[in-house]
Write a structure and sequence with these properties.
The chain is 30% helix and 32% strand. With 267 residues, the chain is an alpha+beta fold.
Length: 267
């Protein structure tokens, strides 16, 4: 399950009413606790702490011997066309008999009862062919479902990011609600700042801001205001602001303190 990281830091701002600088904290934009769709024994785990992963990358595989055997069996059954071919032959034979009976009846050689019996046999053969075709389609659907179940034995990364923590290893059991690893998305970064409430009316979503990070030391980057809290903190007389900060290549580390300067618009 994906959840935004929203660090709560009580920051007291003791500047003038029009001060535009605030302390802030740099966080990952998303942190994911990665688990499995189904529980099972881990066959292999392909990641470790600190690894950079891409969305859709295979992180681990659960043991799937039973599912593979089921797919082999269903593949043979779904590929078998013998029953359909046999029913097609019977249907064609019944169809030919019906046509002959009708021609003979037209020559007054065959009775009406013989024609009706031939028609009935043709209809029965036609329905048996339809049933055989339905059974084959059902086998094909069951095979597709078995392949879907097999796919659930593979755990994929839901985001681009970096592995913060690896919790399980090959040979361990992954529970239904268990987690294999924790992955953080570092591009973009989420910067959380608390600003004096006197500045509230001067901010808007989309406002450009300057973020000075601690590491690399005193580098200045440009971010964009994404969220402005609508509930002020009466105790500290501040409100929270979330800023999205691009971080191509995940160059900037998360978890560091920073300073934000707002070019706040005036009323």
């Amino acid at each position: 399950m994906l959840r935004p990281i929203f660090s709560i830091a009580a920051v007291f701002l003791a500047g003038a009413a029009h001060a535009a600088a605030s302390d802030c904290v740099v966080n990952p934009s998303i942190v994911v606790g990665v688990g499995g769709t189904v529980p099972g024994l881990l066959e292999e785990v392909l990641i470790d702490r600190g690894d950079i992963v891409k969305k859709g990358q295979i992180l681990a595989r659960l043991n799937a011997n039973t599912e593979l055997s089921t797919i082999d069996l269903m593949s043979e059954q779904a590929a078998n066309t013998s029953e359909i071919e046999a029913q097609q032959t019977r249907y064609q034979l019944a169809l030919n008999r019906m046509d002959r009976s009708k021609r003979l009846a037209g020559l007054n050689v065959a009775s009406r009862d013989a024609v009706e019996e031939a028609i009935a046999q043709m209809e029965v053969s036609k329905r048996e062919l339809a049933l055989a075709e339905t059974r084959k389609r059902i086998l094909e659907l069951e095979l597709a479902r078995a392949k879907t179940v097999l796919g659930q034995k593979v755990i994929l990364s839901p985001i681009d990011g970096i592995v913060m923590e690896r919790k399980l290893y090959a040979g361990e059991y992954l529970d239904q609600d268990g987690q294999l690893a924790t992955i953080a998305q570092l591009d973009p970064l989420s910067v959380e700042a608390f600003v004096a409430d006197t500045e509230y009316s001067k901010f808007s979503v989309g406002l450009a801001v300057r973020v000075t990070v601690s590491e690399p030391r005193d580098e200045v980057h440009v971010g964009t205001v994404q969220v402005i809290d609508r509930v002020l903190d009466a105790a500290s007389r501040t409100f929270g602001v979330r800023i999205m900060l691009p971080n191509a290549g995940s160059r900037l580390p998360a978890g560091q303190r920073c300073k934000v300067e707002f070019d706040a618009k005036s009323n």
